[in-house]
Structure formats: structure tokens, C-alpha cells
Amino acid sequence: MAPQTSIPLAATVLGTIGTVFWAVQLVPQIYRNYRTKSTEGLPAAMMLLWSVAGVPFGVYAVVQRFNVPLMVQPQCFCVLCGVAWAQCMVYSRKWRVWTATLALGALLLVFAGVQVGLVLAIRPAYAADTSWPVLAIGILAFVVLIAGYLPIPFELLKRRGRVVGIDFVFLAIDWNGAFFSLMALVAQREFDVLFGSLYALCCAIEMGMVVSHLVWMARTRRIRRTAAEAGVAFDECDEGVAWQEKGWDVGAQLRTVFGRGEGERKAEAPVEERGAV
Predict the structure, then answer these.
(1) 213 and 231 belong to one structural domain
(2) Where do the TM regions start and end (predicted)?
(3) Which DSSP string corresponds to 238-261?
(4) What is the torsional sign of CA 124, 117, 51, 172?
(5) DSSP code of 237?
(6) All residues at 6 or more sequence positions from 48 whose CB lies less than 8 Å from its CB, including other chains
């Protein structure tokens, strides 16, 4: 599609609302991580991929000349996701705070340099009606951002549909950010199919997460009531623990399979060496 030459007022207003939501979307999640000193259930890979996605996302928005709020949006998104990723490294991987801070600072500097370089490289070609570079950047942003959601189904399978570690206020703000951004694209003179699809998918996936948790609550209402009457949390109730243990931990199974294969190779190595002697 051609760059936007004029932006309707409605698109700017809707884009501004979406940007305000996305500028603060991860603040509740970051605060929750800090308050609980835990990021269990919040995939570090998701936060890192989302932060990376901010680079092509920003390039695409700038080159396409979206309204200013939609250009600012990826920058806020990139930084906040980076902060959440650093928290995952500190609370789950036990990195030192200064190590995670330095790593985050270095990443953001690299991201800024790459984004500026790509904008300067792609903008002249796009102005000369060569559209494939910006299309490739848009597809890359789309793929990386959606890839960030891939750990979520595995987390839900492990916990039988329960959403753990992800703040629902964050999900609500994120959903509204995606929705108003989608409406801003609708209000523009030319609709961007790629990013429109991206925003719509974000809305659908996050609604699916909420529905999954509501189903979990319905299925465990008796156990949760029993735990409440006993004055303990669901995870401290024997029946609750037994119910959750029936979840399918795909990651653990893969580690077991590959770990077993590695162990077998190590066990066979001495035999082969003795045969050679």
C-alpha cells in the first residue's frame, strides 16, 4: 500500500487512545512482578520476542507514515516488554539486577540503531515505489509478535487452562490498545491489512486466554470452595494440587526425552571406546 498522505482526525484520536493504552499496558504486569518478586507463568521468551518485534513494527509505522501516535506506540511497547523480560531474568533465572539492567540497556541501544538504520535504508526505496522491503519488514513484525504468544498454549496446557503469572489488568489494557489501534486503521483513508490482521489477532488471542481461565474457574469451583472453607489457597489444597498435576507439561516431557537421549549417548560412549581399544 502507498504511504498515508493525510490522516483523518478520527484516526488520530483513535490512534492516540490506542497508544495511551499501549504506553502503559505492561505497567500493571511490571508492578505485579516487582511486588511478588516472581514471574512464574510469564514466559521470558514472549517478553523478549515482543520487545524485538517493536523494531520492525516501528520501522513499518514510520515508513508508512502512520499517524504519530501509531509511530510512538512500538517504541513504548519495545521498552516495556524489555523491562518485563529483564524482570524474568532476575526473578526466574536469578540474574543479578545490574546484569539484567546492562543487558536490557545494550539490547535497547541495538534496537534503536537497527530501527534508525532500517528506516534510512528503506524510506528512499519506498518513495521510489519499491514496496517489497517495507512489506518484508511488516511481515517480520507480524511473525515475531505472534510468535511471542506461542509459549502461552503450553502454559495453559500445563495448568489445565489456568492463567498464572499474567496480570488481567495488563490483558485488559493490552486488548483495548489493540482494539483502538485497529479502529484507527479502519478510520484511515486506506486500511492496512497486515497490521489490521495483527491487531485483530492480538484481540482474539487475549480474549481466548480470558475465556480459558474462566473455564478453569468453572471446572474448579468446588475445589476452590473447599480450599476456601479450609482457609488455604487452591495450590495448598491436596485436591487442588492433585487436579493441577494432571496438566500436560510439554516442556518437561521434551526435556525428559532429550535428556534421556543424551544420557544414553553418554552411556554408550565408553563401550564404543573400549571396543576400539
Answers:
(1) no
(2) 6-24, 45-66, 102-126, 132-152, 164-187, 193-216
(3) HHHHHHHTTS--HHHHHHHHHHHH
(4) negative
(5) S
(6) 81, 85
263 in the same domain as 184? no
Rounded Cα–Cα distance for residues 227 and 114 (Å): 52
| Three-class secondary structure of residue 217 per DSSP | helix
Chain center to CA of 169: 15
Residue type, 176: N
Give the list of residues 6+ apart from residue 62 with CB closer than 8 angstroms, or none: 71, 119, 123
Q: Is residue 4 part of a domain?
A: no
Instruction: From 33, 15, 12, 34, select the one nearest 23 (Cα to Cα).
Output: 15
Phi and psi at 245, nearest 5°, equal -65, -15
Whether 52 and 7 have beta carbons less than 8 Å apart is answered as no
Residues 6 or more apart whose CB falls under 8 angstroms from that of 247 comprise 157, 158, 159, 160
Smallest CA-to-CA distance from 77 within 50, 109, 39, 42 is with 50
- Residue 138: all three cell numbers together: 511488516
Taking 3-state DSSP, the helix, strand and coil percentages for the chain, each rounded to the nearest 5, stand at 80, 0, 20
Name the pTM for this structure. Answer: 0.81
Confidence of residue 12 (pLDDT cuts 50, 70, 90): confident
257 part of a folded domain: yes
Cβ distance 41 to 164 under 8 Å?
Answer: yes
Looking at the structure, tell me whether residues 119 and 188 fall in a common domain: yes
Per-residue pLDDT of 209-256, as tens digits, reads 999 999 999 999 999 999 999 999 898 889 998 998 888 887 777 677
Q: Is residue 150 part of a domain?
A: yes
Structural domain for 51, as ranges: 9-220
In eight-state DSSP terms, residue 45 is H
Residue 1 lies in a domain: no
Contact criterion met (CB below 8 Å) for 34 and 213: no
* Amino acid letter, residue 9: L
